[in-house]
């Protein structure tokens, strides 16, 4: 099998799996307890928290562990909204956000808040001119993803933060960093709220985090035992956290080499496809300007879902978009439509997302399978 749906989830790396296993069998105490065995477990948790904080350019106390990015995104957005409960404030996002952000903003709209959905450029990046026009003194929150999960467009968070500082200095800036964290070089994050998810970078499923800068007021999420500064109560997922920490440490040491290999894979695949197929389009930025692991392509005249299942017969796993949307029987792609793609091109879109276990040589096999099936399906269509 050649797995090319790493934007949906990733295979757990050995270091992370072993760290999680050791925690389940050796360091399994509840870190909230006070005896020595539990204190030792808590020490490991706090070391992991400090490591993640360094990767984000944050303080350890600014990291709150969650179960996933959906929880992190909901906690960030509703957390800010709850602070302003009873007042109608402006909340700004984009038309191309992941469903865990987009649907949360739709819920705010239904609650009576003023919600603005910004447009995007043809490459999938946010229209910063629209952002500047939408910001005002009544703006409570801006949520703009770091890397688009479907086309790999990279938003300039420093530029966004600068625009906000000029036009709405009191607004809170949240960014969904799920497809950026570990896939882009580790740099200090200019956002005040930032979401990550472990299973997107070869850590176990069921663990994520939300960075919350110290001066940001946020309403509580889960109530209970006051874990995580009382913001997100509940027994910590210690195996998941320490598994995620192992993955983060691996990417800190090896991330540059992994990212270089991902770009080589994209280049090899595109070279092979363009050499033997006509009417192949890249949806999103130029492949050298997008995130290293995401490649969204359209093959004119070939429905994306049909090609997906044809490739499945060859043991190749790809997708047509976000895994959180594919089982809803949607007839359109919200992200590609917002980018202005014609309907036929959007329907023929295929997302190929690479991971650390992919090999450059595999791209020849993938290209051959795509070329063979695109030619076959186009012939049938004619």
Characterization of the model:
This protein has 382 residues and is α/β, with parallel strands linked by helices. The chain has 2 domains: 2-8 and 254-377, Alpha-Beta Complex (Aspartate Aminotransferase, domain 1), CATH 3.90.1150.10; 14-250, 3-Layer(aba) Sandwich (Aspartate Aminotransferase, domain 2). It has helices spanning 14-25, 36-56, 69-83, 99-110, 128-134, 157-167, 238-276, 304-312, 334-338, 343-347, 362-381; strands at 2-3, 63-66, 90-94, 114-118, 139-143, 172-176, 193-197, 208-212, 280-282, 294-299, 316-317, 349-353. A 7-stranded mixed β-sheet has the order 2-8-7-6-5-3-4, sandwiched between helices. Strands 9-10-12 form a 3-stranded antiparallel β-sheet. Strand 5 (139-143), helix 6 and strand 6 form a beta-alpha-beta unit. The longest helix has 39 residues, at 238-276. It starts with a strand and ends with a helix.
Note the topology:
Elements: E1 2-3, H1 14-25, H2 36-56, E2 63-66, H3 69-83, E3 90-94, H4 99-110, E4 114-118, H5 128-134, E5 139-143, H6 157-167, E6 172-176, E7 193-197, E8 208-212, H7 238-276, E9 280-282, E10 294-299, H8 304-312, E11 316-317, H9 334-338, H10 343-347, E12 349-353, H11 362-381
Parallel strand pairs: 1-11, 3-4, 3-5, 5-6, 6-7
Antiparallel strand pairs: 2-8, 7-8, 9-10, 10-12
Structure described in brief:
With 382 residues, the chain is of the alpha/beta class. Helices cover 41% and strands 14% of the residues.
